[in-house]
Specification:
141 residues, mainly alpha, two-stranded antiparallel ribbon, 2 strands
Length: 141
């Protein structure tokens, strides 16, 4: 079972909540999130252009909104893709962190992505609960 329990370590520099990602929620070849430091993470996480951004790393920034180039082309691109495919905005996430702080963002994410049927985590990429398999938009409650 995957009970919802998002914490700060699961919020990527780009604003992605890794705790709702398909790669994090799966059991086989599980990713530990974008901030995890291990060489066996999927190649897409290890070589991520946003995670490895020189501006972000050179200035010791935690999140992309802290950069003077925000929102850069990389953020705009991933935001457009996630809004179109998954109805989620990285820019909106980053602005929420900037405006309300990481703790409030996490509290909101825990509520937003919690399955109303079983308390499990809704998988953003499949729009289903990772525990009971119910579609997000067909949940009762």
């Amino acid at each position: 079972m995957h009970p919802i329990n998002i914490d700060k370590s699961l919020i990527a520099p780009c604003g992605m909540n890794c705790g709702i990602c398909m790669a994090y929620l799966r059991n086989k070849n599980k990713c530990n999130g974008c901030r995890a430091i291990n060489t066996w993470n999927p190649k897409t996480r290890v070589e991520c252009k946003i995670k490895n951004c020189q501006s972000l790393n050179a200035h010791g920034l935690e999140y992309c909104y802290q950069c003077n180039q925000y929102p850069c082309t990389l953020i705009k691109h991933i935001d457009k893709r996630y809004r179109a495919r998954y109805n989620m905005s990285m820019i909106q996430n980053l602005n929420a962190i900037k405006d309300n702080g990481i703790e409030e963002f996490i509290k909101a994410e825990n509520e937003k992505w919690k399955c109303k049927s079983c308390g499990g985590v809704i998988n953003v990429h499949k729009d289903i609960c990772s525990t009971c398999g119910k579609q997000r938009n067909t949940e009762s409650g």
